[in-house]
């Protein structure tokens, strides 16, 4: 049981890490960590899984390439803004509504559904992150919290119910638009750092789905 709890904690940490990556521009302190030994070890561990080896290698190459930029922090911040804070015509906006909504506008049905889902599990959005509920960072943060909530259940039946909730969330709220988002990142991210991150996220979500299915 302790191994299962520890494994779930690792899953949650990955979702939270990716949430922070898509929530805001990386700071100089963040980049110092990205080029440090702990991140190298962390990514090496992820890359030991066959399904993640190629996307991890691509992301590690993007980190190395980023380190060679003349003003890395400012240039990556510009990439972030150009992709995620721009317009649908020029960027890859990180909102589910832009990909599976019916209006092509923000706060479409996916945002409403996400807001209702968070309320049903009594998981609050961080007040300092004032974005529609279907922002990728919010959805990934929610998934991390859902995993930890599963660890806190007292019975096998309760834990299984939370695992099924996680599977449903991946299928209906993440994998229904992440492939489209990743494709847009690959088309529009000329440097490639965030495209590599999106590709790694998509691969991880697909792998996590297999875990939840017991495959």
TrEMBL record:
Keywords attached to this entry: Chaperone, Cytoplasm
Pfam families attached to this UniProt entry: Nitrate_red_del
Superkingdom, natural source: Bacteria
Coiled coil: none
Intracellular or extracellular location(s): Cytoplasm
Gene3D superfamilies to which the protein is assigned, alphabetical: 1.20.120.1820, HscB, C-terminal domain
SUPFAM superfamilies registered for this protein in UniProt: TorD-like
Keyword Transit peptide: no
PANTHER family: CHAPERONE PROTEIN TORD, CHAPERONE PROTEIN YCDY
Family the entry assigns: Belongs to the TorD/DmsD family. TorD subfamily.
Role played: Involved in the biogenesis of TorA. Acts on TorA before the insertion of the molybdenum cofactor and, as a result, probably favors a conformation of the apoenzyme that is competent for acquiring the cofactor.
Protein name: Chaperone protein TorD
């Amino acid at each position: 049981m302790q191994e299962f709890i520890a494994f779930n904690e690792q899953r949650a940490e990955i979702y939270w890490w990716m949430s922070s990556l898509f929530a805001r521009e990386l700071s100089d302190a963040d980049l110092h960590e990205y080029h440090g030994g702990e991140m190298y070890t962390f990514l090496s561990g992820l890359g030991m899984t066959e399904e993640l080896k190629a996307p991890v290698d691509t992301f590690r190459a993007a980190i190395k390439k980023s380190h060679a930029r003349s003003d890395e922090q400012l240039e990556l911040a510009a990439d972030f803004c150009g992709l995620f804070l721009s317009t649908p015509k020029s960027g890859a906006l990180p909102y589910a509504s832009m990909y599976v909504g019916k209006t092509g506008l923000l706060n479409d049905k996916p945002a409403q559904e996400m807001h209702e889902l968070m309320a049903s599990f009594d998981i609050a959005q961080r007040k300092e992150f004032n974005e529609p509920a279907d922002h990728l960072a919010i959805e990934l943060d929610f998934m991390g919290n859902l995993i930890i909530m599963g660890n806190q259940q007292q019975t096998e039946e309760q834990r299984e119910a939370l695992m099924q909730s996680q599977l449903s969330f991946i299928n209906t709220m993440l994998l229904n638009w992440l492939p489209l988002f990743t494709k847009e990142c690959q088309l529009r991210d000329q440097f490639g750092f965030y495209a590599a991150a999106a590709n790694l996220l998509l691969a991880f979500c697909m792998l996590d789905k297999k875990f939840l299915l017991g495959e």
